Amino acid sequence: MLVPVEAAESTSRVPVLVATTRERAAVDTGDMFSRERAATMSYAMVSVSIPPDEARVVGAIQWPTVPPGDPRREFVTVSADYLDRTAFNTAINSVAKKTRRSKAMIFVHGFNNRFDDAVYRFAQIVQDSRAPVIPILFSWPSQGLVGLRAYERDGEVARESVGSLDGLIEQVALNPAIREVTVLCHSMGCLITLNALQARARRTGKIGGKIRNVAMVAPDVDFAAFREQMQEMGSSRPRFALFLSQDDGALKLSKSIAGGLTRLGDVNAEEEPYKDELARANILVFDITRLQGQAHSRAFEDVTTVMGMIERRLAQGQQLAEDASRRPAAGAPAQ
After folding, report:
1. How far apart are CA 320 and CA 57, in angstroms?
2. Higher-confidence residue: 97 or 258?
3. Are the C-beta atoms of residues 229 and 207 closer than 8 Å to each other?
4. Neighbour-count burial for 19-44, b at 16+ CB within 10 Å, e otherwise
5. Distance, CA of 117 to CA of 139 (rounded, Å)
6. Residue 263 pairs with which residues in a beta bridge?
7. What gap in Å lies between CA 172 and CA 106, rounded to an integer?
8. Per-residue confidence (pLDDT) for residue 332, from 0 to 100
9. Which residues, in sequence order, are bridge partners of residue 44?
10. Coil, strand or helix at 184
11. What value does the mean pLDDT take over residues 107-127?
12. Lowest-pLDDT range, 55-64, 109-118, 253-262?
């Protein structure tokens, strides 16, 4: 999928900067990076061509029927380049200057994602949300497979990827061209994100500064562990938004595998103890159970109600705003 082709007229291009702990693909260069874990971080930049809205379904990825694809009707790759750390930082500066943007969005994908899955999904999110950001993908070595053993291995690798994401967040935040950082995570990627932010809080004593927003979509995270992490991060943490679906079959399966531990992404936010605990932690909650689409990824498909919210607030230079209806019950202590 990542073999470059010539772009067509009337298409859009989304440049995705990449930091990854995957090994370079040795067999198929069209993969760029494999499912194997590398000892060090690698960098790349992939430019994705997206057909015009009238030729596709907004909110979905039009995968090539026959790779590398037809740019008039399908997502295709128009450039794919490996970078070193210095070139990666230079590329951030270049994109910032060219687009006149100073806000970075770091996307951390979830379980069962190949490298091309993550690149094309993030390109779709950026295109459909119209978010005024510099897109940076953190791709950890998910197997890109479905099954109990693959899920367990992804969980192990996810925990091993925490330090690398922590380092990337620091690297991006230190870039003088970046004024604000939003982290968008999905499913198991939220486990990596929360652990990385917790590690940052332990190391520096606070997380704030340029890291303004964290948007968690269908987080495959133990609710009790999440509550403890919020407490440890303290009041200087970024603004957190939670997108949950009570009909998320993937998270219900994850809950079963975890021995019945409640997953953050499928709680009923109107029931106790979740309602008060989320309000006490000042979490902005979006229950998207009612929306159409596959439950585990519908937040990326319904761009008007979900990604549109992020776009509007980032475009206006705001943090994710407080939801006045989600305040602690009378007498509950503020955190």
Report:
1. 27
2. 97
3. no
4. bbbbeebeeeeebbbbbeeeeebbbb
5. 10
6. 222
7. 9
8. 34
9. 18, 82
10. strand
11. 93
12. 253-262
